[in-house]
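Colleagues,

For the teaching module next term, I've prepared a clean inverse folding example: a structure given as tokens, and then the sequence designed for it. I'd like students to try predicting residues themselves before seeing the answer, so please don't circulate the second half yet.
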């Protein structure tokens, strides 16, 4: 559904609702009201699912794990759904959910989903993680999986990013900490330990602005606009011009205008002064350019209005300042969102809406947020991660309704 159609449906639904309110005021009776509701919705061409979506709470952030999704609503509530084999939904079970379920009653400001675990920051700055923990990625000092959120230490945190088997987070003092699997030095603290079950500080810098965790590498941007990467560079995903490992953070080039970075499975993308750059493995076209793997950043097209980028697995998505959404790379499950399952080696427009503002989150499924707070997801749905009550994959965006 494009933005124009969405607006028409909203207007028609509001008219139907006003008619019902008038009927109630005239005390026509509950049976008549029920009939009017059904008739009004039918006349407006609004399905039950669309009615629920229109009435759903607005969403402010979303994250896509391997087969689960989490989102924060405007009131700070945290909602998760999809695969739950490791307890990554945080609901105290290991049962999959095909519709959103609230995680406790706390107020959250940030959340990120890894392959089988999830971490989030609450309004008081406390950090919580849960889910699969076989490599210590939860960070609670154990390798025991957790089906409900567990607080990590007592520090205050600004943001967190969960990878397949390691996690990194930035504290409010600008220091960067990582924990979990370190087989390829992805924690940035050297080759040892092999597994860290509690957070370890990465170098001594206190000006980290953001961090992103890939499969075997990690990248971060500092407040001075410099970009740094470390871990394994099997296909050039560190952007350092070489293959092999980097055990501690190394600066990528000399630019000081990086505003964001995202790490996929074995590729990385970042935004620099509105231009989009990607590097690393390119077997599915996830770099957005028709070339082989790249060991240094390569510019994607000539557009200078990119504002946000997200990547996980072998798929990338990005939003431009005009509100247009574009995806590219692996598309076997329809995660590019163009109505096909054809891999794309160049950014491909997702519909014609110009109101995309949040996300995007890309994995084997993708999600993004529109200006009205509506959440839309598409792609793989084998674990119910699209949140529509089914396990049927979708190759175009469909709106997800959080319970009101």
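(Answer key — instructors only)
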């Amino acid at each position: 559904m494009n933005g124009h159609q969405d607006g028409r449906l909203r207007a028609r639904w509001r008219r139907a609702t006003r008619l019902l309110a008038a009927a109630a005021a005239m005390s026509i009776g509950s049976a008549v009201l029920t009939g009017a509701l059904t008739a009004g919705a039918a006349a407006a061409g609004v399905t039950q699912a669309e009615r629920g979506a229109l009435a759903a709470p607005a969403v402010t952030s979303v994250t896509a794990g391997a087969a689960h999704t989490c989102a924060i609503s405007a009131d700070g509530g945290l909602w998760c759904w999809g695969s739950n084999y490791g307890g990554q939904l945080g609901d105290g079970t290991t049962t999959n959910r095909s519709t959103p379920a609230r995680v406790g009653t706390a107020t959250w400001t940030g959340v990120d989903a890894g392959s089988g675990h999830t971490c989030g920051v609450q309004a008081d700055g406390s950090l919580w993680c849960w889910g699969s923990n076989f490599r210590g990625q939860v960070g609670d000092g154990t390798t025991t999986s957790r089906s409900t959120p567990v607080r990590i230490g007592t520090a205050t945190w600004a943001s967190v990013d969960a990878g397949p088997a390691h996690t990194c987070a930035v504290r409010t003092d600008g220091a960067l900490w990582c924990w979990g699997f370190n087989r390829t030095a992805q924690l940035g603290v050297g080759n040892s330990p092999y597994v860290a079950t509690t957070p370890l500080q990465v170098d001594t810098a206190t000006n980290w602005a953001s961090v992103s965790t890939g499969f075997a590498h990690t990248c971060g941007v500092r407040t001075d606009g410099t970009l740094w990467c470390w871990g394994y560079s099997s296909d050039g995903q560190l952007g350092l011009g070489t293959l092999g490992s980097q055990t501690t953070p190394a600066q990528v080039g000399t630019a000081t205008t990086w505003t964001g970075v995202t790490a996929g499975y074995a590729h990385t993308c970042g935004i620099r002064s509105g231009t989009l750059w990607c590097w690393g493995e390119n077997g599915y076209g996830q770099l957005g350019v028709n070339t082989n793997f790249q060991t240094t950043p390569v510019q994607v097209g000539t557009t200078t209005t990119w504002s946000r980028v997200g990547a996980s697995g072998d798929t990338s998505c990005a939003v431009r300042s005009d509100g247009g959404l574009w995806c590219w790379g692996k598309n076997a499950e329809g995660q590019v969102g163009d109505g096909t399952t054809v891999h794309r080696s160049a950014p491909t427009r997702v519909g014609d809406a110009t109101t995309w503002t949040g996300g995007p989150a890309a994995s084997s499924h993708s999600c993004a947020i529109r200006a009205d707070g509506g959440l839309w997801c598409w792609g793989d749905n084998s674990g119910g991660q699209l949140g529509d009550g089914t396990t049927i994959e979708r190759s175009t965006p469909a709106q997800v309704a959080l319970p009101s």
